[in-house]
Amino acid sequence: LAEAELESGWRRVESWAPDDGTGTRAGFVRVPMLVAEKPGAVLRFAFEGTAVGLFVAAGRDAGTVAYSVDGGPEREQDLFTQWSPDLHLPWAYVLDADLDPGPHELVLRIADEKNPESAGHAVRIAHFLVN
User: Which tens digit of pLDDT belongs to each residue from 79-119?
Assistant: First the structure.
């Protein structure tokens, strides 16, 4: 998490815990997280490898991320799951794979659109995944 460049709308929370009464899973509460809750929040993550993803806590207010790797086309990933209304669920998303070995840059933005069942746009990143 420390390697991410927080451009706008993001903050590092040293010991994240939900304040909405929704359940959690061990290992994804009272741990450091990168948190943003409003559309347009942007971060950059430089990495070296062939794949990149996110390990998030996807609760009732989970949003959608828009992302690109190495300036490529922007794609979206909805972080809301069928279990999100009742649980801040740990969930892994592979955003891009089969990249050429070497250095890359992920640019991640909270999208304006969100799942209609979600109560918000929140993105809570516990880990970046890199292969």
Answer: 999 999 999 999 999 999 999 999 999 999 999 999 999 99
**Ramachandran area for residue 19 (φ above 0: left; ψ -120 to 50: alpha; else beta):** alpha
Question: What's the pTM?
Answer: 0.95
C-alpha–C-alpha distance, residues 67 and 42, integer Å: 9
CA quadruple 11, 119, 44, 126: dihedral positive or negative?
positive
DSSP-assigned letters across all residues of the chain? -TTSEEEES-EEEEEE--SS--B--TTSSSEEEEEE-STT-EEEEEEESS-EEEEEEE-TTB-EEEEEETT---EEEE---TTGGGB-EEEEEEEE-SPPSSEEEEEEEE-S---TT-SS-BEEEEEEEE-
> Which residues neighbour 73 within 8 Å (Cβ) at sequence distance 6 or greater?
none
Output the six-digit token pair for 18: 């939900």
**How far, in Å, CA of 50 to CA of 84, rounded?**
29
